[in-house]
Amino acid sequence: LGVAMPAPRKSPSRRRASTASAPVDVPAATPTSTTLDPSRKYTRIRGVVYDVTDFEQKHPGGAQLLSLCVGRDATILIESHHLRPEIVQKYLKTLPRVEGQNEAFGPEEAFPKPLDSALYRKIQARVREEIVEPLKASHGRTPSGRGGCVFDAAVVVAFFIGALARFWYKPDALSGCVLGLAGYWSGTGLQHTANHGGLTKSGFWNQFWGWLGNDVFIGKSSIEWRYHHMVSHHSYCNDAELDQDVYTALPLLRLDPSQELKWFHRYQAFYAPLMWPFLWLPPPTGGFL
Fold first, then answer.
1. What pLDDT sits at residue 126?
2. By CB distance 3.0 to 4.6 Å, which of 95, 151, 190, 241 could disulfide with 50?
């Protein structure tokens, strides 16, 4: 099935109710196989298994983003990351399908799927009508949601290099704080956008800037970040059992009222700021699982 990171740790016992709307049409493609080839890459979307091997390098967001779907049910991941479902449908129609291998990807997720929600569809429509279409009218083309951040990225990189040089030349409390701020800015203003595939229109350069801003500047892992943030957080946003951004800090930080209340949580407003610099530790040391 290709290399896949572990799924979120367990299925929640409670599920959010969603308002159902018209069912999503699954593209009708011609089945090309009934077996899974270990040398190829597959994903499952809406109960249909697709071979994405040849499409990986053609994916508009870059191969590194499509790789998040490999070996798993990617329905929620795909639907929560694409503003225009009709574009997704167009591409899915071109992908080879594999019949009779649905069970190889585990049971269907019980978590509500984004496009089954009338509210989610309405929000998508409003974003297209109130943001995308006006931009299309003013720029003469349909915005892709990617690129246009060259100056912003250059400022972040220049500030980090300057702060690093200052700390190298004269290490003190002030230069250390400035370097910490530069690292924070790199994490939120450079690698976050790049690893989401939105900094440039090139998948290669998004991967490069994501690596530079994450792995090099702040010593984290861009690969781990994409799984932690995009597969977990954006797919199951704020769910206390599936969103790793919510439960990774347990038991020291309680970020959801459904989590067990400890006596020391009443003081977390005071000690939490001292913990934030160390929140990168749980994923590579076991919290990621």
1. 93
2. 95
Q: What DSSP string describes 18-56?
A: --B-SPPPPP---EEESS--TTS-EEEETTEEEE-TTTG
Give the separation between CA 274 and CA 253, rounded to whole angstroms: 11
**Long-range Cβ contacts of 228-234 (<8 Å, 24+ apart):** 228/283, 228/288, 229/192, 229/195, 230/65, 230/68, 230/77, 230/81, 230/195, 230/196, 231/5, 231/68, 231/77, 232/8, 234/77, 234/80, 234/81
Tokens (6 digits) for 200:
């440039």
DSSP letters spanning 232-270? IITTSTT-TTT-HHHHTTTTT---STTSPPPGGGGGHHH
pLDDT for 189-207, tens place per residue?
A: 899 999 998 888 888 999 9
pTM surpassing 0.85?
A: no
CA distances to 71, 162, 206, 222 from 217, in Å? 31, 12, 15, 11
Query: Phi and psi dihedrals of 87, rounded to 5?
Result: -70, -40
Sites in the chain below the pLDDT cut of 50: 2-22, 288-289
Q: pLDDT of 92-129, one tens digit each? A: 999 999 988 888 898 888 899 999 999 999 999 999 89
Cis peptide leading into residue 251 (ω within 30°) = yes
